[in-house]
Write a structure and sequence with these properties.
This protein has 444 residues and is of the alpha/beta class. It is built from 15 helices and 24 strands. The structure holds uridine-diphosphate-N-acetylglucosamine.
Amino acid sequence: MDKMVIEGGFPLVGEVSISGSKNASLPIIVSSIMFDGSDNEIDNVPDLEDIKTIKKLLISLGAEIKESGQADKLIINTSNINNYDAPYDLVKTMRASVLVLGPLLAKYKRARVSLPGGCAIGARPIDFHLNALKLLGATVEVDHGYVDVYADKLKGAVINFPIPSVTGTENVIMAATLAEGTTIIKNAAREPEIDDMITALNNGGAEIKRTEPAVIAINGVKKLKRLCHRVLPDRIEAGTFMAASAITKGDIFLKNINVSHLKSVIEKLSEAGARVIINSSSSMRVKGSKVIKSVDISTSPYPDFPTDMQAQMMALMTLSSGLCVISENVFENRFMHVAELIRLGANIKIRNNFAIVKGAKKLSGAEVMATDLRASASLVLAGLASSDGLTTVSRIYHLDRGYEKMEKKLADLGAIISRVKASDPLSAEAENPDFNDTACSKSA
Ligand code: UD1
């Protein structure tokens, strides 16, 4: 397993280009299952481990993914799909694999998907997905760790989510797209990645409309034409670089972003003292301040502060001038990074779903271990701000799941950061091939 070695204490300065959104790419790629075409085209897809996993999954179903000559463009032929199973090996590495349930059921009236099980940040069941598919007329059976879903036909229904679920909303939208009649989703999730998927589907002939902020109406259509879409920018990658500028007291210009999707992050970083200068709807400059003010943060579904930015903001708050409370309200166990931040000198106490962070004068480099995707980002940020000694972040396969070329982007901004390959003699894992842990590989 690769590690990241960071010599911190330097401000990050320069320009960074933000990649396409992971969480929008995943449902849009799987939605290609519902299209007949041999040349479904998706642009601005980031080069990430999670994208490789979803491509593997589609190929295992019988899809063909062609090289386009452009690194971030996928051309997908789904006309020969002949398998409807998402196996344990793929679902265990990425729980978003459950997104194939909706499109497989819509198009082929059957799907068999390994149950994702728990993950590093919480139990994360898929009961909302399954209950909604039942309401659309599907039979759902759980056996030997797999869920089998099948139907003669799907019929529109009213679905009321107990709490908003991002992939749950996406699965139901896809299942309802080719169903008979109208489906209404109430208490639907409002994340922009869902609307990006809706745009992609509508451009291919679907009839889906967000009629109120949390209500989505889907008029079933008989068939879809060609999928042709450019994925929106990754707001969490953007937020991570914004926090990187603030924590290193740097000055970063971010381009290829969607500013309107970053309101809550801009608000909290500004409260913390960073200067956010918006240049256009797709670019901004973030200047860190000498003094980082402490701000309370409370995560909630979009448009509120994203849980996927909680760990990075916590890293920032470890160097703040006072005391703050960070409440995690989306996942029950999303504080795994706390113990690692403490190893770097942070002063944090956990009480249920609250973390009380008292700003420290400085962080100092140490060996730390990534536990999930965003936790890894927070450790990299803390390492960049550690003013004495090297920080080594191990298990960065978590980081590779969701950040495209992160060390290169950071190095281009002046960070002293390098990847130690597993094959490198400096890597402990290289010396001990038994050192492997996939048990906590699933995360957001
Ligand atoms: C998605 C994002 C993830 C983000 C999360 C919350 C993708 C691929 N992943 O994950 O990055 O952190 O939204 O913004 O888009 N729940 C249930 N039963 C269900 C479904 C969800 O109890 O059937 C609960 C979850 O345990 C969690 C909450 O609902 O407490 C919200 O989860 P959800 O929005 O579904 O997260 P994901 O879609 O898995």
